[in-house]
Every structure is written in structure tokens, then in C-alpha cells.
Design brief:
9 strands, elongated, four-stranded antiparallel β-sheet, disordered N terminus, alpha+beta, 2 domains
């Protein structure tokens, strides 16, 4: 039962004519269809230009380009920079508004956290693969002085069983045994820290290594080193490591890493 004090108020609502609320713009969320042509165009606007860099955004802000224009350029082109606190403070000091700083953080590319590593091992040997060695690959962060990743491959097992490796055989000379030429491996190496990285490679008959630090002098001299700069942010994060392993013509269990080349692509 309603309280008597509430009856007059309810009567007023009942007697008042209904006021139609203004109709909102109808939007189909599946395709963002709207009668607002400008909103539709802005939503689907893109740019084929390369992403903006921090230096370019600082230059635009310093030249007095409006925040709406800078924000729209960042949305359509994205930002190739690390949106950490130091970078955002630097942008603010360059004269960017709070809205531009916020948009910078939203449209910046995510930081690199993995390297797509492809390894190709060319094995030069006229013999079988019964004594093929182990290949150890260490990714070492020179600035942090620490191991980022450690990879190994049992060439003897890979070449004998195939495994996940791609093996190309040369049967051009029927008088020689099937000569294994190439093994290709592919993996993703986690690495969250930009800076100078070094790929160290060792070919040896030793089993069970988990680092290439502190090796005996004879083995240390056989380690191949290839250094490169790992960026904090990039359009791509791909490296290819090419190795040439040569077998001694007299000592069937003696293999030498003759060549190691690293080619990295960031954009």
C-alpha cells in the first residue's frame, strides 16, 4: 500500500504528458554504419605512410601543429617509439598537450619481446653423419651481462632421424654416400631488453652444455661471435643465422665451424 504522502507526487507523474527523448544516432556495431558521414570517414581513414617517430612528433608539436591534427596522424599511421615514462615526459616537455601524450601512448607500437630466429646449418662432409656434433647457440645481452636464451641442436640425431629439421641431400655423385647439405631450424627467442646482443655459436662433441661462459681455453677460441643492436620497438623482429660446418677429411669426428653470419631485419 502506498503511503499517503506519496500519492500527490505519483498523481503528478501520472497526469504529466510523456516527453519524447531525442533519438540518438543509430550505429550498427557489426559494420559501424551511421548517417554521420564524417564519423564514418574518420573511422576508416588509414595512411600508407611509415609510422611516426618520436622526433617527428616533437617537431610537429614544436611547430604549432594542433593537437587534433597530430592525434589523427598518430591514429592513422601509428607511432614507432617506446611509450615509457621517460618518452612521455620528453614529449610533454616538447610542448605536446596532455591529449597528444595520451594518444601517443595509445597508438605506439608494442615493445619488442621476442626475436624470430631462423637458423640454417650447411654441413660439408663426404661421410656419413654418425659423428656429427652438437651446435650450441647462446644469445647474450652485452649491456646487461646476462644470457637471454640458450639453444642447442643435436646434429647427429637430427640428420639421422630427420626430426623437425629440413634436410637437403646431394646425390649428384653416385659413388659417394648421400651427403647432407642443409638443415633449417626456426624458433622464437624471448628477449625483452633493447641494447647490444651477441649471438655466440660453438660446434663441439661435448654433451649437456647450458652456457658458453667459462669454457676451457681451447673451446673458447672456437666460439664464433656476431653482435647486433636490438631495438626497443620495430616493425619486424627477424634474424637469420647462417652456419657453415666443415668436417675434417681425415678425422671423421672433427667438425669445424667455418663461418657464422647474422642478418637481422627490424623494418
Amino acid at each position: 500500500m502506498f503511503r499517503p504522502a506519496l500519492l500527490p507526487l505519483l498523481a503528478v507523474f501520472a497526469a504529466s504528458p510523456a516527453v519524447a527523448a531525442p533519438r540518438a544516432t543509430r550505429i550498427d556495431l557489426m559494420s559501424f554504419q551511421t548517417g554521420d558521414v564524417d564519423a564514418w570517414e574518420r573511422m576508416h581513414r588509414t595512411s600508407d605512410s611509415r609510422p611516426l617517430t618520436l622526433d617527428e612528433i616533437e617537431k610537429l608539436a614544436g611547430a604549432g601543429v594542433g593537437q587534433a591534427a597530430i592525434t589523427e596522424m598518430m591514429r592513422t599511421r601509428k607511432v614507432l617509439a617506446l611509450a615509457d615514462a621517460d618518452t612521455l615526459v620528453r614529449l610533454k616537455k616538447a610542448g605536446a598537450s596532455d591529449d597528444v601524450v595520451t594518444a601517443f601512448s595509445a597508438y605506439a607500437y608494442p615493445p619488442n619481446d621476442v626475436i624470430d630466429l631462423r637458423v640454417q646449418i650447411d654441413v660439408s662432409t663426404p661421410y656419413g653423419v654418425g659423428q656429427a656434433p652438437f651446435v650450441y647457440i647462446e644469445v647474450w645481452h652485452e649491456d646487461l651481462k646476462r644470457q637471454e636464451a640458450f639453444l642447442y641442436a643435436d646434429l647427429r640425431g637430427l640428420l639421422a632421424r630427420g626430426g623437425r629439421a629440413e634436410v637437403v641431400r646431394d646425390r649428384s655423385d653416385p659413388l659417394l654416400p648421400s651427403t647432407v647439405r642443409t638443415v633449417r631450424l626456426h624458433g622464437r627467442v624471448p628477449s625483452r631488453h633493447a641494447g647490444r646482443l651477441e649471438i655466440r655459436t660453438l660446434v663441439t662433441q661435448r654433451v649437456g652444455l647450458d652456457t658458453l661462459e667459462g669454457l676451457p681455453e681451447a673451446e673458447e677460441m672456437r666460439v664464433r661471435r656476431e653482435a647486433f643492436e636490438y631495438p626497443a620497438v620495430s616493425l619486424e623482429s627477424r634474424c637469420r643465422l647462417d652456419l657453415l660446418v666443415d668436417r675434417d677429411p681425415l678425422l671423421k669426428d672433427a667438425f669445424t665451424l667455418r663461418r657464422s653470419d647474422v642478418d637481422c631485419r627490424w623494418d
